[in-house]
Amino acid sequence: MSRNLSFNTRKSLCNQLGEAAGNEVADLLQQLVRRVELLERTKVDVTPIVPALGDRQGVPAKSQTSGNV
């Protein structure tokens, strides 16, 4: 489902920003819409297999002193 900017939206951008800048912003918006649609289509849910480093409960912390005295 690709969404395109309407003619009126593109025309308003060109009127407010100037022809070149308005077209550039409109093109950029179109690229962003296509990129988001691609990311939505190819999205994969990720389930962590191992806990993250901050989630390690019950694991004793390393000693700050060295064993060589």
What does this structure look like?
This protein is mainly alpha-helical and 69 residues long. The chain has a domain at 1-43. It has 2 helices and no strands. The mean pLDDT is 81.
**What ranges have pLDDT less than 50 throughout 5 or more consecutive residues?**
none
Helix count from the secondary structure assignment: 2
- The radius of gyration computed from the alpha-carbon positions, rounded to a whole number of angstroms, is 26 Å
Termini separation? 69 Å
Shape: elongated
Structural class: mainly alpha
Give the helix proportion (percent range).
40-55%
- By DSSP, the count of extended strands is 0
Strand content: under 5%
Query: What order do the helices and strands follow?
Result: HH
* Biggest beta sheet summary: none
Q: Kindly report the average pLDDT value.
A: 81
Task: Please sum up the structure shown.
It is built from two helices and no strands.
Characteristics of this structure?
2 helices, elongated, 69 residues, mainly alpha
